[in-house]
Specification:
This protein has helices at 17-33, 45-49, 56-73, 90-98, 104-108, 111-119, 128-131, 133-143, 156-172, 188-191, 216-224, 245-253, 258-262, 269-278, 283-308, 312-341, and strands at residues 4-9, 38-43, 81-84, 148-150, 181-183. By secondary structure, it is mainly α. The strands form two sheets. The chain has a three-stranded parallel β-sheet with strand order 1-2-3. A two-stranded parallel sheet has the order 4-5. Strand 1, helix 1 (17-33) and strand 2 (38-43) form a beta-alpha-beta unit. The protein is elongated. The structure holds tryptophan. Tryptophan binds next to strand 1 and helix 8.
């Protein structure tokens, strides 16, 4: 069986370093591993509209931003099909048929939907489109017969729901769809990088994100005001690593060969941590090191982003070509689906 990847992001803002360590970096590695036959990376604008119906301009503006983020991190349109969800209208058709296989109570039990409803304060006024987006996500995945969906752990309930839909479809009609597996980030720090304020999640509304496209000066300021250990007041005080954002970021970004260049008094991250917990190591020094570590990773990405941003029409054309290709693939699956459902009257 072919190994196929599908994943994507809602274009509601520029991508941040949480996206980067949580998924983007991994996607690029998977892309370059040569182990996958096909890779689809989707800008989920239709899904973004399920809770931004009144703000299409925000979604529109972020299509090219997200594409720039993708390509500057190393997603290569020669190897991965980058496309826009709404162009592939077959996805909405699949969603409509799959919705017959899902109950309202099952959707209500989806933990991600539950917490997002709370987060957005929808309470009793939940848009139907938002409530049913797990079904549309199952369409996204199955339209490409994806075997592998690289995502963060918050997306696990979506993959589970997609698997149920596949089983239900295949047993009700015919073996057409492929059950996908989620592929999670490798380390805990990467799984859910906290905001710079130490809060559990990076979110635009909390203003605690470091964006891939932030200027070095912004990044320096954000790191310098990062949450550490509030009881680590004087340099001599022993410091805590638990919940210390600076160290969580170092866990996600640092590799030991960076010490020789930026902090030669230490050989590895463990030595730095030991000194911090013992006492005698100030936050500012660790923060300056984190800045160097982060810029080491982000500088080439930012340089590439600036280059690519000079020609937005070319970026849009790449997405257009990718979308045309994605549409063909989805149309093939849709015709198999209709055949299995015996509604292919005129074929
Ligand atoms: N829900 C994902 C997000 O919030 C975006 C997405 C839409 C997606 N369809 C998908 C991810 C299919 C993986 C597979 O970013």
């Amino acid at each position: 069986m072919k190994k196929i990847i599908l994943t994507g992001d809602r274009p509601t803002g520029r991508l941040h370093v949480g996206h980067y360590v949580g998924s983007l970096k991994r996607r690029v590695e998977l892309q370059n591993s040569g182990q996958y036959d096909e890779i689809y990376i989707m800008i989920a604008d239709a899904q973004a509209l399920t809770d931004n119906a009144d703000n299409p301009e925000k979604v529109r503006k972020n299509i090219s931003e997200v594409a720039l983020d993708y390509m500057s991190c190393g997603l290569n349109p020669e190897k991965s099909t980058l496309f826009v969800q709404s162009y592939v209208s077959e996805l909405t058709e699949l969603t409509f048929y799959y919705s017959n296989l899902v109950t309202v109570s099952r959707l209500k039990r989806n933990p991600t939907v539950k917490s997002e409803i709370q987060l957005r304060g929808f309470q009793s006024s939940i848009p139907v489109g938002f409530f049913t987006y797990p079904i549309s996500q199952a369409a996204d995945i199955t339209a490409f017969k994806a075997t592998t969906v690289p995502v963060g752990d918050d997306q696990l309930p979506m993959i589970e729901q997609a698997r149920e839909i596949v089983r239900s479809f295949n047993s009700t009609y015919d073996e057409v769809l492929v059950e996908p597996d989620a592929l999670l980030p490798e380390s805990k720090a990467c799984m859910r990088l906290p905001g710079t304020d130490g809060k559990a999640k990076m979110s635009k509304s909390l203003g605690n994100c470091i964006y891939l496209s932030d200027t070095p000066e912004d990044i320096r300021k954000k790191i310098m005001s990062m949450y550490t250990d509030p009881e680590h007041i004087r340099i001599e005080d022993p410091g805590k690593l638990e919940g210390n954002t600076v160290f969580t970021y170092l866990d996600a970004f640092c590799h030991d060969d960076l010490f020789a260049e930026y902090l030669p008094e230490y050989n590895c991250l463990q030595e730095l941590k030991d000194h911090y917990t013992r006492g005698g190591l100030g936050d500012v020094k660790v923060k300056k090191f984190l800045y160097s570590v982060l810029m080491e990773e982000l500088s080439p990405i930012q340089a590439k982003r600036q280059e690519l941003a000079k020609d937005i029409p070319a970026i849009m054309e790449t997405l257009h070509q990718g979308s045309i290709k994605a549409k063909e693939v989805a149309a093939q699956t849709l015709s198999e689906v209709k055949h299995a459902m015996r509604i292919d009257y005129f074929d």
